[in-house]
């Protein structure tokens, strides 16, 4: 029955009528491989350059909007067909070639990794990303495809994506949420063999929510995306996948349930059976609970802890957040409202369930932390830069209170970028001419990039100048459009056509406008900045872009301050803010500016990848020593400039004052003079030398091909090996490990280091050896179940051990019932003051780390 006044709409789909000769275009438009192929991009653009811009570089929509006469003409154009066939051959070759992983790890051909993330930044035409986290996830998939890593990915298909930004007349950020047309995107609905769409169910407190599963192809990597906007769902449930990071806390937990629990079920429904699961940030942590539930359902005789061992062994968790405030926390009441019916399937009570997400298990007032849940249910945990790994160990030290900070089991895999996605066509073409072809297939081979030094200075500089010219042209068009939308006057529109000088030193700053990123640090002393900008003989100009979270009023104030500063009459042409920062704007900026500015408050930038994108294009970085730049600047100081020396100060106002002055000093004394130090040929030779260092030294290190290989070798393969071992023989070893840990916890209070006896009188010469005997009471525990270690190293002024090493002590014999003798040796290899301690830790080889159970005894 049809409700009065409401039409009964019957849907149908219209497909582009592409001539048979051009069918490869349709196939390639449905795979995001083209995103990082300049020749493929040019192939589409060649059909209609204006329309390509109008459809926001979306080839699916582009082919549907093209005039049929243009398609017919292309189908008979031998030059176009030759171009298309060349690109299509490269496409099919990419899908078939074995890749690095199969060659390097043939014994692990059964690896099947699943990468879960709340956002994926693959291209601006699929706006289901907000910033660095999503773009990193997108680059992760592109590199996984290139190296042939057996991986699938899971995310959410937001029908409104992330917001589009526009500014009011007074510079205040406004948001709009245009609806995505999934049927004009490079996604396809998954279907069962009978042709019906794949739907999975997730239970919520009031009802069940059904999720449709879509697939986007990224080279050879499938990305499965869940969508709750279905007629059978209630209106509130249809909105779960409406906006990325939209709504309040309750919408967030609903999204994360769909991502984690629904994502695991979606893979099962699609016939995908991963054996390693990677949680990219804590948003996906509920997947570990669903995995445990499935195991308990399949093997009802298991306990939660027994099933947990196998899940932990095969889970990897990457944290991107350097402060606890940036982690998703939910109130206990909210968590139990959503998981009350789920908890019994885990064989836990409510208190045991909530303890999984508490930093301090005994503190029942604490919120439920998604990061803590992920850490407790993953054996592999990592930060995203060397410094962030250290910050993470400090931040989560309370989970292993007796373990020295340096040994907290959180390592790091420094982020990277997918180089070919972010390279300017001019730079890419130049590298093709001067570098061995391996720069594309093996971008991590540093020897390949040595040839950057052979690129003629004139050619590199001219290629970069073309990038800057293109940025200026883009900025003028974008600014004019911004002003037109606000109803600007004729004079203002005319001014937009004249902003920026295509030959002037151009500094870019673009990122999310969170307060810790200090978007207005440059404006702290406006008079000094004004003097720098108004120096006409050596012109300098700034291009800003970025969004603030819709609820972040302070971030919006930062944007407003920049916009209003740029409106001053003498600065209008030299300071520009570009609205609606996305991947398209980012490409123009990282390719076209001369200096990439980054000035977060250390140590709050976990990694930061925008500077890596700039560096690959020969753009020099000027940055606080935070995140990745700690490592980048250490490789070669010629790749840019460091603001300060990595100092941290509790007085943030003082720190901002000092570092803003250091930034002005760098501009005046080094950056501007170096840029304008020209010879008779008008070439800035020292600047070009730095550009070569930036490309040659940083590109082979800070790329996602290297990063994904590290994930594969440091985390995925070990997780596969441990997970497979613990799952074998109906989980025999997982059961044994759970029993071992439970037994240890019961017996641990009785373990005591009774005495420690070092040899000698406390004075040794370099080259001598000190022996240490330790008497240890083990009332019940067998010595083989434990490891006794010497923890030794140089002692610093505060009395703690620097650069510690751990040495296993050998079991000798039982001296009396329950009392055992262990002996170890220390080689004196360097002079100075040294120290040691004796400790007892669990010793099972099935543990990912002896510190995982949180049990340790010190003398």
Short structural summary:
This protein has 859 residues and is an alpha/beta fold. The protein has four domains: 20-96, no CATH class; 107-412, Glycogen Phosphorylase B (Rossmann fold); 423-697, Glycogen Phosphorylase B (Rossmann fold), CATH 3.40.50.2000; 751-858, Immunoglobulin-like (Sandwich), CATH 2.60.40.
The fold-level CATH name of the largest domain is Rossmann fold
Strand content: 15-25%
- Radius of gyration over all CA atoms, rounded: 29 Å
CATH architecture of the largest domain: 3-Layer(aba) Sandwich
Keywords:
single chain; 859 residues; alpha/beta; 4 domains; 30 helices; 28 strands; 40% helix; 17% strand; globular
Q: Could you please describe the fold and organization of this structure?
A:
The longest helix has 44 residues, at 704-747. It is built from 30 helices and 28 strands. The radius of gyration is 29 Å and the shape is globular. α12 (304-313) packs antiparallel against α30, α21 (457-485) runs antiparallel to α22 (490-496) and α21 packs across α25 (583-592). The chain has 859 residues and is an alpha/beta fold. The protein folds into four domains: 20-96, no CATH class; 107-412, Rossmann fold (3-Layer(aba) Sandwich); 423-697, Glycogen Phosphorylase B (Rossmann fold, 3-Layer(aba) Sandwich), CATH 3.40.50.2000; 751-858, Immunoglobulin-like, CATH 2.60.40.
